[in-house]
Specification:
By secondary structure, the protein is mainly beta. It has two domains: about 260 residues, no CATH class; about 40 residues, no CATH class. The longest helix has 15 residues. The chain is elongated, with a radius of gyration of 30 Å.
Length: about 325
């Protein structure tokens, strides 16, 4: 499968996150970036909000079988007068041999999710900076001329063991992700007054068959999906996405960087309660950023405002940006 990147533009790549997608190609011009995000730095460093958790299920089955022990005995043959005229042999069960066997089966399972504070292994919403392109005439155009403070939630599950080919792991995940504004956003009328309800759903995505990829013993990885190989739905309080496009023209890509341990298949179960958990990868944490694309092409002026706004955020992260690597399969 050929892999292509989804780019936010030169300014965003150079200053914000250098996110590159792992997604199947579409016809030229079919998709365009509509949203992106980066983690919120903490004292100059990015927390590792993305968590890959090895949850292999190890089941040991014990089987006990009993084998009879036979002893040969002489049984007398008697005539009508009760006299013994001979003997015949017979097998008599005098006990049992008990044999116990154990078999271990490992069912692969991995979860990929966000944690609230960049540590621990509990699912949670992580703070990020989120940008989305909306039409210039949109009542939300002013709000989205700058990055939004948002909470990012990702929850995905894989029940297939990752494949290793050419030094690259690949694994399929199903799940969902969402971005929720920490401060409600209102539509503005022509006079600049807030009207309508308070809205917070920046972007919600449900997906199947997203491809997780990462180089063996590397520290970078990606999770990406592209229709029609994957099923993807986009919903937002601030943009309308055609349901017809869900079948052919949606992409998204998350890039992970600076994994806490090199990517490798697990040698022991991470909980240390079972013998083995070697079907999926070692658990690890990573920083993350991402882009989202759809067939609806934003107006150039709105897109440039999005790029410039995110570029300002990225200035403090230039040193981290250079460590992001392109992930391909």
């Amino acid at each position: 499968m050929f892999i292509r990147g989804l780019y936010l533009g030169t300014a965003l790549i150079g200053a914000a996150a250098a996110t590159q997608a792992v997604a199947a190609p579409h016809p030229a011009g079919a998709t365009a970036p509509v949203a992106s995000f980066i983690e919120v730095p903490t004292k100059g460093a990015s927390p590792k909000i993305l968590y890959y958790k090895n949850e292999d299920v190890v089941k040991t089955t014990t089987t006990t079988t009993k084998t009879p022990i036979y002893t040969t005995v002489q049984v007398p043959i008697k005539n009508s007068k009760g006299q013994i005229t001979g003997y015949t042999t017979s097998q008599k069960i005098t006990g049992y041999n008990t044999v116990t066997t154990k078999s271990t089966a490992v069912t692969p399972k991995a979860e990929l999710f966000t944690t609230a504070n960049g540590s621990g292994s509990t699912k949670g919403a992580a703070p990020v900076k989120f940008l989305m392109a909306v039409p210039a005439g949109s009542p939300y155009a002013l709000a989205f001329s700058k990055p939004q403070n948002a909470l990012f939630t990702l929850s995905a599950v894989s029940t297939t063991a990752p494949l290793l080919s050419g030094g690259t792991f690949s694994e399929l995940f199903n799940g969902s992700l969402s971005f929720t504004a920490t401060t409600p956003i209102y539509a503005l009328n022509a006079a600049g007054h807030a009207v309508g309800p308070a809205l917070t759903n920046l972007l919600t995505i449900n997906f199947t068959n997203a491809v997780f990829t990462g180089s063996a013993n590397g520290l970078t990885m990606g999770l990406a999906a592209s229709t029609p190989a994957s099923t993807i739905s986009f919903t937002s309080d601030f943009r309308t996405f055609s349901r017809a496009d869900w079948l052919t023209n949606f992409d998204f890509a998350l890039a992970g960087n600076a994994a806490s341990v090199p990517l490798a298949r697990a040698l022991v179960d991470p909980t240390l309660t079972n013998v083995t958990g070697t079907r999926t990868l070692n658990s690890f944490r990573a920083t993350t950023t991402g882009t989202f694309a759809a067939s609806a092409v934003p107006e150039s002026a709105t897109w440039m405002m999005m790029i410039m706004g995110f570029a300002a955020i990225g200035l403090a992260r230039r040193t981290d940006v250079r460590r992001f690597a392109r992930v391909t399969v």
